[in-house]
Every structure is written in structure tokens, then in C-alpha cells.
Structure to design on (376 residues):
């Protein structure tokens, strides 16, 4: 993000703060280490409730946010009651938010003004994996397709560059496309 | 899930419907092919809005659900205004919902009655990846830790078995821990 135009705000991103943050982190990489968290409580059947509140970052705990609560459920065809989006839909929400923010932030750092960004997400799942009917079928998404539409006075090449940067620098995209270790512990 | 006790409902899961679904899918694997979707629109800065509505599954489009809308933002330290959870937190929400539902459904199929399930999630991210400061640092979560607490009249071994099944059969867990292809296209 070095070669950016220095200006106060672009695409709603405070570019001065962004570059100050980068310089602070270059001097002390500990500032860049974040821990994000969620809690979950099962309600009934396919219905459970997740809560997001505190996190650690920039060398301190931050518990100042109001908790955000998410209902998770399945549609009736998947044994639920439609009380919320389902887990694999939440994954697409996560991916959508991350690619969009990554695109916008890196556009701001490059000095590219953006008027609008829309994107759509579709993933294929074969439920024979989840149901244990076949060991050959992947349990997770077999693949996810994303389409972006960018409204900006930029060439197609510049828009392609932004879409490439969005992928390169998106934490959720990289968590999904590289295999990320998840360790699960039972509290006895 | 073959060796289960056949009864109407366990843990809020209609076990008859679950086994009927498994038998239908064994006769026609096309029934198991689902497509889940989300849309996203950038609002300003780190704030964007995702919408979940229709999906394809059990051989047909389902557009009957009311849309569910999610606000995505960052805290001020990450250039946002706290208008919603951030993308990597949504990923933990997705993982929490999926491991919980996977645990509950497979417990029901095994005939294990569950009184309560709580779980907590924490993931480490080094923002030098997102910011492009270091090419060596992973951009996504470096690792994610999960802890489960299960309230049930089960032995520790049976609870450990449930936690193992939750991981084995959870689509989101497998999407994250195996590398899943994501193709991103620019609409010109």
C-alpha cells in the first residue's frame, strides 16, 4: 500500500489512519496480532444462537462493543424452522464482507475512487457428506463462485486488479482457500 | 447414522424425517445436491450489507424464505464504526452454528439425548498479511481454537465421540480445514 495518494478519506476509508497504522505496525509487529471470538449456545434442533462481543488487538482487550447476536437455523427441508440463516450461508456472508472490505480498503490505498460494489456468492454442497452416506463426497463446499460488479471510473484492467487484490488480502478468502487448522477441545 | 434408535424427535430433531431423507438420497443422490447463496452491497468504508434468501436443494429452487440481512463492519481500531460484526467474526459464527448442528443431529441419530451445548471460538490473525506488510505472514486465520461443553447423561468417551463426529460431518469445519476452491469473476 506504499504508493498511495495521501488524502484524508477515500471510499469512506480514513487513508491517513490506514497509513499511520501501517507505520506503527512496521515499528512494532505485536500491534498487528488480533484475536477474534464468538460464543454459541444450542437452543433446540437445528436452532442455535451465536454471540460476538470482545476481541484482542492493538496490544489490548476491547470489550466496549455491544454484543451482536445471530440466530442460526435450517429451512424445513433440512430439519429446521427458518429461524435464521444456516451455517454455510453465514460462511458466504463472511466471505462477502471480507472480499468487499478488502477491495475497498486496497482501492483507497491505491487512490481509486469507488462509487459502488455489488457481489454475489454461490456454493455447492452435496449433503451425502454431512449425512455420512458417502465417504467419497466432500463434507464442505465443493466450490464457491463469486461475481463482482464495480461502479467506478476505472479501466477493466484496473477493476481486475482490484478483484485480484481483494482475494490476495482477504483473511476470510485465505482462511477458506488455504487449509486452516481448527482444534476442538471438550471441557469435562 | 444407521444404528440409531428410531423415534419421533430427539434433541428437537425429527429423527424419522432424518432417516427418510437418508433413504430418499440413497435412491436418488441428486436430492442431496444443494446450492446456497448470498448477495452483498458495499455501503461505505468498512460497512457493507449481506443478504441471504433463496437456495436450491432437494431438486428445486426454494425462494419462500424472507430475506435475512446482515450488517458487516469493523471496530474503529480497524477503520470502521462498529455497525456490525466483522467478516472474520462472521466466519466464527458460521463455524459455531455448523459444529453445534452437526453435533446435535449426529447425537439424535445415535440416540443420545442432549440437555445443553455451549461452545466458544477464538482465532488468531496477524494483520500484517491483510495490510501487505509481510508476504510471510498468513493472510487468514493462523489457527482457530474451539471448546465445547456438553450437558448430557453421557460418559466422557461418548462426549468425545460426539465432538469428533461434529468435526467429521460439519460442512463449515471441512470448508475451512480442507482448502476449498473459490473462483472470483468480474462482471464487465
Amino acid at each position: 500500500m506504499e504508493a498511495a495518494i495521501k488524502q484524508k478519506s477515500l471510499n469512506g476509508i480514513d487513508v491517513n489512519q490506514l497509513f499511520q497504522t501501517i507505520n506503527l505496525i512496521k515499528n512494532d509487529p505485536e500491534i498487528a496480532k488480533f484475536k477474534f471470538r464468538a460464543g454459541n449456545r444450542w437452543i433446540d434442533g437445528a436452532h442455535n444462537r451465536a454471540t460476538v462481543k470482545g476481541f484482542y488487538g492493538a496490544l489490548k482487550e476491547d470489550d466496549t462493543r455491544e454484543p451482536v447476536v445471530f440466530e442460526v437455523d435450517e429451512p424445513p427441508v433440512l430439519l429446521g424452522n427458518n429461524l435464521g440463516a444456516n451455517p454455510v450461508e453465514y460462511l458466504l456472508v463472511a466471505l462477502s464482507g471480507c472480499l468487499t472490505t478488502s477491495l475497498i480498503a486496497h482501492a483507497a490505498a491505491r487512490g481509486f475512487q469507488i462509487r459502488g460494489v455489488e457481489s454475489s456468492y454461490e456454493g455447492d454442497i452435496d449433503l451425502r457428506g454431512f449425512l455420512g452416506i458417502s465417504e467419497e463426497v466432500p463434507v464442505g463446499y465443493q466450490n464457491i463462485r463469486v461475481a463482482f460488479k464495480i461502479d467506478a471510473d476505472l479501466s477493466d484492467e484496473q477493476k481486475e486488479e482490484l478483484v485480484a487484490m481483494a482475494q490476495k488480502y482477504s483473511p476470510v478468502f485465505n482462511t477458506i482457500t488455504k487449509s486452516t487448522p481448527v482444534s476442538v477441545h471438550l471441557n469435562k
In short: Chain B touches chain A through 126 residues (CB under 8 Å). The helical segments of chain B are 15-27, 87-110, 156-169, 171-177. Residues 87-110 of chain B form the longest helix (24 residues). The radius of gyration of chain B is 20 Å.
